[in-house]
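Quick question about two entries, pasted in order.
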Amino acid sequence: MLSERRLQVLRAIVQDYVGTEEPVGSKALTERHNLGVSPATVRNDMAVLEEEGFIAQPHTSAGRIPTDKGYRLFVDKLAGVKPMTAPERRAIQNFLDGAVDLDDVVARTVRLLAQLTRQVAVVQYPSLTRSTVRHVELLSLAPARVMLVLITDTGRVEQRMVDCPAPFGEASLADLRARLNSRVAGRRFADVPRLVEDLPEGFDAEDRGTVSTVLSTLLETLVEENEERLMIGGTANLTRFGHDFPLTIRPVLEALEEQVVLLKLLGEAGDSGMTVRIGHENAYEGLNSTSVVSVGYGSGGEAVAKLGVVGPTRMDYPGTMGAVRAVARYVGQILAES
């Protein structure tokens, strides 16, 4: 276990390196921070921190910089989440309140997160599997063609065309719409298959084929693989940190193009807590020089998706964590009110 003083020295090194982009020496630490000890004592503390793997010396006769392990300890023990100021909170709310639909909410959230953190912002669309049915609309397009519109509690709208095996009249369609919504409106997606399995039996024999076809389309929509959609923004922000990537920024950019990689980085949608993955904690090799800060968002205290940022390990962790948490809270409020 590190002593309290050595933890203070590590905190000071992280703060100075993040702020100045320069390796940190003992003389600078004693001048900038009220550590209450001599430069010689600080040098000794830095030697112990280096031996323990929390800091490293990038060049001969240079200062020290934090390692992934050092950042990890800083995030876990030394960094409080920096709260947003009242003007910042108002700006977030005003910007997000103008959204007109779910796509607009996600687009605004990406833009806002990228601007607040000056990192790459990633926002996952609300997962269908974690959503609740608000309404199912059925619209007649032709005697044997129906449009199915599924609206979720998060404002997500999915549309599907249904080619029916036989003509289906407006009265029958209205009857199906009413019976369907009476069973599924306000219910979790996971419960829908059980709730509608016997629905065709309540219709006349000539309509059962069409009812079954409509229900099959609805159930396919609930379990589709491609539901996990993401929006990403602020990639150009990475160009400001070119010297933070050891060889080239290219592996990072390539990784950001892989949706599956990004979904794994954000983590499980149901986990609403803050997650910080630093450097080599990211399983994907191309992102070993980055950190990912993510958190769940949703309405009613349950996460339906994740949002977060990707940036270099030399990151303002308290400020980034505060911004990510604040934005997630406001997006959850918007979904709850939509």
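Here is the second entry:
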Amino acid sequence: MVKLSVIVPFYNVQTYAPDTLRSLRANARADFEFVLVDDCSTDGTPEILQRAERELPGAVVIRHERNGGLATARNTGLDAASGEYLTFLDGDDWLAPGHFAHLLAAMEDLGCDFVRTDHVQCTGRARSIHRAPVGRRGEVLRPRDSILPAERSTSVDYPYAWAGMYHRRLVDRGLLHFTHGLRTAEDRPWIWRLHREADSFAVISRLGIFYRRGIASSLTQIGDVRQLDFIKAFDQVIEETAKDPESERLLPKAVRTYCAVIAHHLGSAGKYEPAVARKLRAMSAAALKRMPQDLLKEVLDSMDTERASRLRKVRRRPAPLTAEAAA
């Protein structure tokens, strides 16, 4: 019987994969399995994973013949996983020894659908602690109660799939899979669905995940068209939240978060290729027009001047988004 399945996608991370795999070995247990998904890497990652399959207890390697992105790779891992509990790690991050055993003990003690935990962000040699934005620790809570308030950072603004552990019943209910093909912001519809539809969760104070930032090859550092998938992701958040029985209460948070992310990307437009920057502005204008306009007005009126001005400027774009721009 497999107690825990750990799903780890890898894509062109030959520099960092050895650290990740060493940390998995320091977390291995006879009833743990490690589902290592190679998302069609073109560097030395496949050879590193081949060795890991021989040397890491419980390792299973699955290779994609085509690159599908993080969401698709995680889904592959979910489909192959057999554990009673599941968790994630990215192929360039690492763990403290015994981290998974600690989370699993908390899960079994609390008996909830999922737990969330804090993490350490690593940018070069710098380290900073990032806390899950929930004050009550070590007690079972109702997930949808942690979506609000709209004007503050809440649990849905901490979307990292690897910052937690999940019971298999969430897979059975269709709540753990990611939207196939999303190349960025894949965790945003996922975290919202989890908080709207799961029954229980808890947050525990544990610093055992080390999240690597600022990697040149990371999608967050590359200004190409894949970054624009955040619009598809948040359109999905809005669409699904609008169908919720408490949509009137929850939608202001969804709209405000979407606006904040659009403003962030518009403010970083200089990192994009010129054609992608133009597409960003066109798609952002169209996204603002799709939002509930009464809620959008309230959000813009309540935001700081800089972000609100940025959004109002792009909102005034007269040209509709063409099919070519949306492709």
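Reply: Residues 247-267 form the longest helix (21 residues). Confidence is low (pLDDT under 50) at residues 321-327. Hope that helps.
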